[in-house]
Design a protein that fits this description.
- The protein is of the alpha+beta class and about 230 residues long.
- It folds into two domains: about 100 residues, no CATH class; about 100 residues, Nucleotidyltransferase, domain 5 (2-Layer Sandwich).
- It is built from eight helices and four strands.
- A hairpin with an 8-residue loop joins strand 1 and strand 2.
- Helix 6 runs parallel beside helix 8.
- The longest helix has 24 residues.
- It is elongated, with a radius of gyration of 21 Å.
């Protein structure tokens, strides 16, 4: 029996498409070109049907979301870690977004790889943050370093988060904690550097929707007190 829903004998197709947990994830694909999970077929046939109905980008999303669902299933079965549909979906979207941006970056040629850390202007502090999250359910963690215009370290911080979060949730929580630290240090002119382009775009657009919405909303409120 399926270890997630306990309603049917588990198969690859059931785990990825027919299980109630998987269905809740697929329902978040609002512009899906076909109905998923209504017919019993192997993955290769479903993929071919997706190519007939949709685009190569739809095919990419199908594969990445299916992978995220399978990872979530394994977390629940082997680590007793339960993820909601929004968390699984956001994880898949984040991975696909970062992959596409990386492909664009690689297409710029060797010079694009020669990116080095640059000192901020006099009177400005630069914040570099990073987050780490594990697929095995272990708690996520964040780290930060703040440097001044001479490149000297002004403050550092590392922290283990109270739970296992997605990559982008971890990055967003990292920047939120770092901004709070900067306010406590009374630093008003700052530059924030992040690894996740999805988080950066959502903050700049003040997009408060989706799984990151409440975190981005808090970050936007904190940023209003800074000059840069």
């Amino acid at each position: 029996m399926c270890p997630v829903c306990g309603q049917e004998v588990e198969s690859i197709y059931h785990a990825l498409f027919k299980c109630v947990g998987a269905k809740n994830v697929w329902e978040l694909w609002e512009e899906c070109p076909m109905v998923i999970g209504t017919e019993n077929m192997d993955f290769s046939n479903l993929a071919l049907k997706m190519l007939e109905c949709g685009t190569p980008r739809d095919m990419e999303l199908l594969i990445v979301v299916a992978w995220a669902i399978w990872c979530s299933r394994n977390l629940r079965v082997f680590e007793m870690v339960c993820q909601g549909a929004d968390q699984v979906w956001n994880h898949a979207i984040s991975m696909l977004f970062d992959f596409r941006e990386a492909v664009k970056f690689c297409g710029l040629g060797p010079l694009a790889c020669e990116v080095r850390w640059k000192k901020p202007q006099v009177g400005v502090f630069k914040i570099n943050t990073d987050g780490a999250t594990e697929v095995d359910g272990r708690w996520s963690s964040i780290g930060v370093v703040i440097r001044d215009s001479r490149g000297e370290v002004a403050a550092t911080l590392c922290r283990v988060l109270p739970g296992c979060f997605s990559v982008d949730e971890t990055e967003a929580l990292a920047i939120e904690a770092r901004i709070i630290l900067v306010r406590e240090l009374d630093l008003h002119q700052v530059i924030v550097e992040l690894d996740s382009l999805l988080v950066v775009h959502q903050i700049l657009a003040k997009d408060f929707n989706g799984g990151l919405g409440h975190i981005v909303h808090g970050i936007s409120g904190f940023l209003e007190g800074f000059h840069s």
